[in-house]
Amino acid sequence: MAEFKKQISELSEKFIEDLKYAIETNIINNEDDDDDEETNFDPLEYKFLSTKAPKEKFMELLQKVTKSIVALSSAIQKNERSNMIRSTGDVATVFTQINNEATEIARSLPDGKAKEKLLESTSRCKTSSVQLKINISVKASSDESDDVSDLNNKIIGLFELINQCFGVIAHSDRVYNDMDFNKQSFGGSTSSWNTISWN
């Protein structure tokens, strides 16, 4: 049981590292200021300037699901059964939102491997998080005397798969660059059109 908790804790730390990379590379480094202090930020508490732009909205969802993963890990460490169920439900819900958002964003992105990998990874996270939710519910309802070693292995396997896919999502720099390009090419022309004075 101690090894199971340790593995879950280590995997939740990987989610935080991937989230930090995504925010630092695609949000902070894209801002015009030269403030190097930002590398010491807490990715779970980072405040986005705007969540109206697709990329920022997507990053905020990645942050939200990472918070839920951390809450799930904490509940597992403390054996808080009701919090395990609630947190894993949140994880599944947010991964569904991430998958839906990725599908919507992908409509305006050029075809290519980066786009395909993003869509494949968000879809896997969605389906695997539903399986995780089921397995966590079974674990939370088990008695202390039950042998849950096979169940623990399934949960670890799902956590690892979700973490791998989340890593792909967080490191999809090409896709995030394409989002920026679309925002500049479409948003720029629209905003200049609106500033024309017809008087």
Q: Which structural class do the helices and strands define?
A: mainly alpha
- Cα-based radius of gyration, to the nearest Å: 19 Å
| Count of helical stretches | 6
- Separation of the first and last Cα atoms: 74 Å
Main sheet? none
Give the rounded overall mean pLDDT. 87
Shape: elongated
- Please mark out the parts with pLDDT under 50 across 5 or more consecutive residues, or reply none: 185-199
Task: List the defining traits of the structure above.
mainly alpha; 6 helices; 74% helix
Structure characterization notes:
This protein is mainly alpha-helical and 199 residues long. It has 6 helices and no strands. The longest helix is centred in the middle third of the chain and has 28 residues. The protein is elongated, with a radius of gyration of 19 Å. It starts with a helix and ends in a 5-residue tail after the last helix. The C terminus is likely disordered.
Briefly summarize what is shown.
This protein is an all-alpha fold and 199 residues long. The chain has helices at 2-26, 54-78, 81-106, 113-140, 149-170, 173-194. Mean pLDDT is 87; it is low at 185-199.
Annotate the secondary structure layout.
Blueprint (H helix, E strand, L loop, with lengths): L1 H25 L27 H25 L2 H26 L6 H28 L8 H22 L2 H22 L5
Helix pairs in contact: 1-2, 1-5, 2-3, 3-4, 4-5
